[in-house]
Amino acid sequence: MVAAPYATKLMADLGAEVIKIEPPGVGDGSRQRGPFPGRVPHPEKSGLFLYLNANKYGITLDLARPEGMELFERLVADADVLVHNLWPPEMDRIGLDFGRLTRVNPRLVMTSITPYGLTGPHRDWRAEDLTLWCAGGICAINGGGPDHPEMPPLKTFGSQSGFQGGVHAAVATLGAVMAAMRDGEGQHVDVSIQEALASQLELFFEYWPYMGLIANRLGRKPIQPAEALQCKDGFLYVCCIEEHQWRGFVEVMGNPEWADEEVFSDRFKRAQNWEALRIFLEEYVSGQTVLELYRKAQAKRVPFAPVSTMGDLLNSEHLKARGFFVEITHPVAGTYKYPGAPLKYGATPWEIRMPAPVLGQHNEEILGGRLGVSAARLAELKKVGVI
Amino acid sequence: MPKLPLEGIRVADFTWVWAGPYCTLQLAHLGAEVIRIETRTRPCITRLLPPWPKGQGGGLNRSGYFNQYNQGKRSLTLNFKQPAAHQVARELIAKSDVVVNNFAHGVMERMGFGYAALKQIKPDIIMISLSGYGDTGPYKDYIAYGPAQVPLSGLSSLTGYKGWPPMHSGFSYADPNAGVHGAFAIVAALIHRSKTGEGQYIDMSQWEAMMALLPEGILEYTFNGSEPDRMGNADPWMAPHGVYRCLDRPEQVAGNTIDQFVAIACADDAEWAALARLMGRPELAADMQFATLRARKANEELLDKMINQWTSNQRASDVCEALQKAGVAAAVVADNKFLSEEDVHLRERLYWVFKDHAEIGRIQHAGVPWKMSRTPTEVRRAAPLIGEHTDEILTELLGYNAEEVERLRREGALE
């Protein structure tokens, strides 16, 4: 799905040779999730899969079969890193065991990304993105707000638990690779997605151990304005954290009289009197366009930002100038723009070298060419469903 | 005891607030020696923000926010208004492997610590800037604040209840996301350096690192030319899939009861059938309105209402336990108290860190989100007091004697 594929995508995009192993027949679950061109589901056209797996070789292998496991071990013998996000009971079932693999390859770094980690009472708990976002403590601080206590905690869009599990795992994995380069010995890295999320709670977690206060979505913001407000043509995030930023915004608005009122005289009072302030701000903001007000505010060092739509992102002059979006041509899905490099390296350029593999595309090249399995044997393995 | 993965790697940490400190926190977790360069003339914003320890009140060394994200690091105070402070920083950089900052574009250059200058001091230095907009492009001088990066990235327009305006993620998500991506980039650059001897500069835009996590939204647009609908807690391929109201917490917090919720996700018909059995209504599984995913999506509002009715007079943790036993993904919507005191799993995995802090003693903090079998990584020390290690770094690392340190202090260079 997302966690392990994102971890290895980060590595593949920097030049690592990544061999993606999928179950024969259905392949990776992300092939079913989309989005799909024309909204017609097709296992070779899922945007999530195509994004996560560009720059990788793809083979199919049934690890639950002894012939599959044998080939897998031969691949592992020559690998620096194995990253997976199989559910722990599934690891047990197929016998994916670091103790055995480290005998095959003592330098191997094996990273297991799992919802709750490989130990503890919830090791075998089922999980989806939604339940992890909740178990990690993030859902509780988003949604409804003080004016809408009837609305439940709200998940953040997409597959964020998987992405966070993946990027944290990528950091730990490369750390273990550094140690293996130095010591000649690999190790097993156990990454818990729940823990990766719980380590990102800003100042909200510490409110309990420090002050005995529960932080949740119903709390009022201590400082205002920090809200998305509606302009003529979309939403703009109006954000004045520091006093000089507020003064800059007041100037942008043409120094209206109401801004001198005592009830708006500092950032805490503006939060206490937000209902009143909101009416004044909405009246002004609703007459402006997003880009116009964004630029006027930024010219005065006021950190407003548009609530970008997808179209805004694709059409952004800034992102165009930086070349963020990249075009990828895939033999089945066609040519589209995708998100590109999250980082620009001075010495080691980020690049797309090949599109995501179609299911089993590199079976012959990797299993035949690399491991020396004969064409006849490959045909046999295919017939019995091992590849 | 085997060496930690990044043992011997020194990081000159010019970061502040959250994105940068979250980056260098990962490096500290992996065993790097992270030295935060701070100044009393303009302390890190997080040192000035609550939460404060009960009964102790505020103070530069007492913020739970700062103390969470600066565990395992040391603190050196330098006042760059004094020329001598620049000299100390240059000497530190000469002995460092990595320099990290998350200032706005151009600030490090103005301080005299742009990449070209650093390369003069240390030819194989690795430098990363985690700026809001990156180093190039027409908006490179725009300023970015944590909460505003979430809407800028596009995440807000994708997040929200069905039919509602865009919503936030609840925290300044782009900050830790930039930090952890930055940590990945640094370790990758260290590997490159150990193979080639070559350092490099890394330009990271917090905005771009956030968009890297939004392929499902961005590709709906590039594939089909349309803006995705906001779906609340729903999922196109799973139903039921939501957050359901349970009994309130029994205790009051500041005079209010706190509402509690459980998250439930049924990935297929069998899991839905298991949920229906637990609800005491096994017949629903075969009911034409709910038997297939398509039917459940079509009747999702009714389905959610029935589940809400079932959960509303139970404790969230009871519902969760029962569903997990039946093989259905569920979780309590954990708040900070639940994580801290009631999540038995995190406790048993020894996730929490209790280190002696020089001013406030032992308080619970979040720890390392991974475990390593051979080179155990852990939080090695509590967050530093401001300037706690100034003397130690000057004398032990940079070779100053006590007299010279005293002189620098008198000149105000160590403020």
Task: Describe, in plain words, how this protein is organized in 3D.
Chain A is of the alpha/beta class and 387 residues long. Chain A has two domains: 3-201 and 316-383, Crotonobetainyl-coa:carnitine coa-transferase, domain 1 (Rossmann fold, 3-Layer(aba) Sandwich); 226-308, 2-Layer Sandwich (formyl-coa transferase, domain 3), CATH 3.30.1540. Chain A has helices at residues 3-12, 47-52, 66-77, 88-94, 98-104, 129-135, 160-183, 193-198, 207-211, 243-252, 267-272, 274-285, 290-299, 310-315, 317-322, 363-370, 375-383; strands spanning 18-22, 56-60, 81-84, 109-114, 187-192, 226-231, 234-239, 305-306, 325-330, 334-339, 344-345. In chain A, the strands form four sheets. Chain A has a three-stranded parallel β-sheet with strand order 3-4-5. In chain A, strands 6-7-8 form a three-stranded antiparallel β-sheet, with helices on one face. Chain A has a two-stranded parallel ribbon with strand order 1-2. The model of chain A has no long low-confidence stretch (mean pLDDT 96). Chain B has two domains: 10-213 and 349-410, Crotonobetainyl-coa:carnitine coa-transferase, domain 1 (Rossmann fold, 3-Layer(aba) Sandwich); 241-345, 2-Layer Sandwich (formyl-coa transferase, domain 3). Chain B has helices at 19-29, 64-69, 83-94, 107-110, 115-121, 146-153, 155-158, 174-196, 206-211, 215-224, 269-278, 293-298, 300-311, 316-325, 336-342, 344-348, 390-397, 402-411, and strands at residues 10-13, 33-38, 74-77, 98-101, 126-131, 200-205, 241-245, 252-253, 256-257, 261-265, 329-332, 352-357, 361-366, 370-372. A six-stranded parallel β-sheet of chain B has the order 3-2-1-4-5-6. The model of chain B has no long low-confidence stretch (mean pLDDT 96). By secondary structure, chain B is α/β, with parallel strands linked by helices. Chain B contains 18 helices and 14 strands. Chains A and B meet through helix 2, helix 6, helix 7, strand 5 and helix 8 of A and helix 2, helix 6, helix 7, helix 8 and strand 6 of B.
